[in-house]
Structure formats: structure tokens, C-alpha cells
Amino acid sequence: RALRILYVMRLARHSLGLQTLGLTVRRCTREFGLLLLFLCVAMALFSPLVYLAESELGAKQEFTSVPTSYWWAVISMTTVGYGDMVPRSIPGQVVALSSILSGILLMAFPVTSIFHTFSRSYSELKEQQQR
């Protein structure tokens, strides 16, 4: 399997798309780092909040621990939303709404910068290739 990855990396020399992707990743390390940092901080904020909001509910609890709440926060903030854990209480739903909205905003800001860098890198590489 590792050899397949090396083979694909060798083919990247001939693929404009893979070259652009590699160049974009190298140029956007700060943006990727900030995205990861912001998501980690938001998860550290919203996971205990949803756990506390749902632990007050006397009915069936899906949020049995803070680590399971972290799972929920990752899935919700990245807008995957498996639906395996759902806040049932009103305070839990308010926390969920704010978590999802902040996840959308946190993902949108760095992604636009990364896309701009990708399109600029693609144009540069295409121009170099045509020379």
C-alpha cells in the first residue's frame, strides 16, 4: 500500500491537478493549522456544554460522557451529521444550533482562502506548462 502512495506521488509530476494540490497544501499550511485550531477550540467549548445540557434531562441519555460529546461535536461541526446522537432537551438543542452554525462559519472562512490559493496556483502552473 505504501508503494502505491509512492507511485501516485511519482505520477504527480505529470498531473497538473496533483501538482496544484501539492502546491496549495504547501502554501496554505497556516490556514490548515488555523482551521484545525479553531475547530479544536470550538469542540472543547461545545462538547462539555452539550453534555451538561443533556445530563440535566432525566430521560434516555445519548450523551453518556464528555468523550462521546466530543464525537458529536466533530460530526456536527463538520456538518456530517450521522444522527446517531441527537440532543433532546431545549438547552441541548440551543447548544447544538450554535455549535453547527459556528462550525459552518469556522469552515467557511479558511476554505475560501484555500480555494483562492488553489485557483491561483492552478493558473500559475498552467501558465508555466504552456511555456
TrEMBL record:
Look up keyword Nucleus and say if it applies.
Answer: no
* GO MF entry, a single one: voltage-gated potassium channel activity
Transport: present as a keyword of the record? yes
Q: Which GO terms describe its biological process?
A: action potential
Superkingdom, natural source: Eukaryota
For this UniProt record, the keywords arranged alphabetically read as follows: Cell membrane, Ion channel, Ion transport, Membrane, Potassium, Potassium channel, Potassium transport, Transmembrane, Transmembrane helix, Transport, Voltage-gated channel
**Annotated Gene Ontology cellular component terms:** voltage-gated potassium channel complex
The entry's localization annotation reads: Cell membrane
Q: Which SUPFAM superfamilies match?
A: Voltage-gated potassium channels
Topology in the membrane?
Answer: Multi-pass membrane protein
- Domain Ion transport as annotated: residue spans: 1-124
Spans through the membrane:
32-50, 94-115
Instruction: Return the InterPro entries for the record.
Output: Ion_trans_dom, K_chnl_volt-dep_Kv, VG_K_chnl
The record's annotation in PANTHER family points to:
POTASSIUM VOLTAGE-GATED CHANNEL SUBFAMILY G MEMBER 2, VOLTAGE-GATED POTASSIUM CHANNEL
Protein name per its UniProtKB record: Potassium voltage-gated channel subfamily G member 2-like
- Organism of origin is Geospiza fortis
